[in-house]
Automatic annotation (TrEMBL):
PANTHER family: MUREIN HYDROLASE ACTIVATOR ENVC, PEPTIDASE-RELATED
Organism annotation: Spirosoma radiotolerans
Xref: Gene3D superfamilies: Glucose Permease (Domain IIA) (2.70.70.10)
Lineage summary: Bacteria, Pseudomonadati, Bacteroidota, Cytophagia, Cytophagales
Protein name: Peptidase M23
M23ase beta-sheet core domain sequence ranges: 84-182
Pfam family, one: Peptidase_M23
InterPro entries, per the entry: Cell_wall_metabolism_enzyme, Dup_hybrid_motif, M23ase_b-sheet_dom
Molecular functions (GO terms): metalloendopeptidase activity
Amino acid sequence: MLLPFDFQKDPFLILDFSATNPDLAPESQRQTGLDLTNTAVFSDYVFGKMRTAGVQVGVGGYNEHRVIYRRSEHFSGTEESREIHLGIDFWAAAGTPVFAPLDGVIHSFQDNNNFGDYGPTIILEHNLDGKLLYSLYGHLTRTSLNDLSVGKAISAGEQLGQIGPFPENGDWPPHLHFQLMTDMLGLTGDFPGVCSLSDRAKFLSICPNPNELLGIPGLT
């Protein structure tokens, strides 16, 4: 269990943040006043969609070519913008508990405190039949980082923390970014959650689809 929702029974909404979403076209944003750089407006949009659908959680995003990162220089300030999402996002109320889906140990943690970044982040290391797998939990509360230490054992089902509010979660509408990696590339406390088009194949080869672990119906 990753979150307190049963995705086999509970209703959820698959959210699309790619250019194919007509709401995110520049002209539509001008007409509707959807200013994605304003996190409160962005949050109202996300949770308004969920209220209309009658759900408490929205999901999606793996390998999605997104336009929402253009709101932040953290992703667009480089020579080639990063717009390919490498994890699954779970949009839910701030304070929603987050649980470890597998046994593991704390690999690293830190507050990636930049506009549009992860905010408080925890990375776990798992040993699956002699093969290492890493899982990343981004956009948490700052208190989720309390009392952690590298190497601390974490059991499957144990609460890791909570989904954070903005702005402490990296200034996003409240959600969990959940990502798997087979290679940390020497990094600690952080790992790219979004890559450029030219790096897509490289990062997808080491960031498997988290839904292979979670089995949420309807996610491709």
